[in-house]
Fold this sequence. Notes:
- The radius of gyration is 23 Å and the shape is globular.
- The longest helix has 20 residues, at about 220-240.
- The strands form three sheets. Strands 4, 14, 15, 16, 17, 18, 19, 20 and 21 form a nine-stranded mixed sheet that branches.
- It is of the alpha/beta class and about 450 residues long.
- Helix 5 crosses helix 6 (about 140-150).
- It has helices at about 30-35, 45-60, 75-85, 95-105, 120-130, 140-150, 190-200, 220-240, 265-285, 300, 335-340, 430, and strands at about 15, 20-25, 25-30, 40-45, 65-70, 90, 110-115, 135, 155-165, 185, 205-210, 245-250, 290-295, 305-315, 320-325, 345, 355-360, 370-380, 385-390, 410-415, 420-425.
- The chain folds into two domains: about 5-45 and about 305-430, Lyase, Ornithine Decarboxylase, Chain A, domain 1 (Beta Barrel), CATH 2.40.37.10; about 45-300, TIM Barrel.
- The chain is built from twelve helices and 21 strands.
- Strand 2 and strand 3 form a beta hairpin.
- Ligand LLP binds near residues 251, 252, 299 and 395.
- The site of ligand LLP has 23 residues, from helix 10 and helix 11.
Amino acid sequence: MASSTNQYIKPATAARNSDGNLSIGGCDLVSLADKYGTPLYVLDEKTIRSICKDYKKAFEKYPKVRMMYASKALCTGAVASILANEGFGFDTVSAGEIYTVYKAGADMSKVLFNGNNKSYDELSLALELGVGRFSVDNFLELALLNQIAQANNKTADILLRITPGIECHTHEYIQTGHLDSKFGFDLTQVDEAIDLILNEYKNLKLHGLHAHIGSQIFETGIYPDEIEILAKEISRIDKKYGLTLDEINIGGGLGVKYTQDDFPPSVYEVADLIVTKLYDVIEKYNIPEPFVFLEPGRSIISTAGVTLYTLGSSKQVPHGTKYHAIDGGMADNPRPSMYQAKYYAEIANAKETANSEMVTIAGRFCESGDILIRNIVLPEINEGDILCVYNTGAYNYSMASNYNRVQKPAMVLVNDSDAEVIIKRETLDDLVAHDIIPDRLKL
Ligand code: LLP
């Protein structure tokens, strides 16, 4: 089985150059750190395009597959442009994500709006900007969306988000398909929703069903299980209502390789299982070939990204841990503190020494839990060394905060030995830009 880009820890273009420094996209990481400062997110365009090609090639045997990038993993104008250029649509979950892809020039008919509590304003904006599909999550949203569509003399094209009742083995915070999930209609509530759509909500048009099981998934069997449930439900709805639904959205979730201990499956393997299962259920339930939508986020963008930090202070606990602190941490990458996520890193600059040490990389934020990597073997570290942490493209910048009032880092896109800033580093003035000091308090 061919391997795919999500099965590698490092971006496709990562190498040591003749100076002994790490480079990505032909750009020396030490020079990038020098020029743009640290912490710095670096994103490799070739790696993004390579996984997009993997997905497209893997699903060639089922031409009705449509790819949507789950923009929650990393949503910026430049990333949206690359994905749109690769022919992807977008799974979005907020006005902010919708507006970002819209401003990037995405074809809005290929945009899906997801979420368990979309506001009136967000639904209105989505309808106004021509978002192609709404994955309606609950009864309130059905009523609200119908009301907004009616007031604007429009029809909203929808899917119903259902909870398939499948548990996957991932961190409990990122499981979503189990029965007790906050997302979507329980299967026992689907008929009530369809009755409302057919009889009352005349400005909604139902096209299909949507489910998503979880994230950072390594089990391949859950996708066929999910397809079985969705296809069975589609056939049941067809029989009961004479309503032919020809779209199923099976969500995202494919895992990536953060460390040597992770073995995510190949996109090609997952695609084969999905396609085999699709043809199987089409025959078994005698349903027309549905359009199948996939919403990968992490597997598209994670491997392409690294974060550069400068190493600073250190502390040897007597008979205990050797800490080395970096100039970032939980505000630019909250995943270790939120999900006990593990990362792999290397020193980016050339090191003369053959000595190595077991160290713990500590963040600079004021919490004991701000530890980026526990117990990693690195060459003996000196103050000023540049640390390159791999696989930070997904859910790092998109979950970054200004904790401790620290500016969010910049992001550069590297390709063919060029680096371009795609997100500017925040300034101190950016940090206070939204502050208002009432006149009576002014000093
Ligand atoms: N579709 C839906 C409906 C989703 O809820 C998600 C992710 C995706 C697609 C994309 O899943 P992916 O392919 O990226 O696994 N912040 C967590 C991950 C939360 C995922 C939320 N939903 C983390 O850093 O691990």
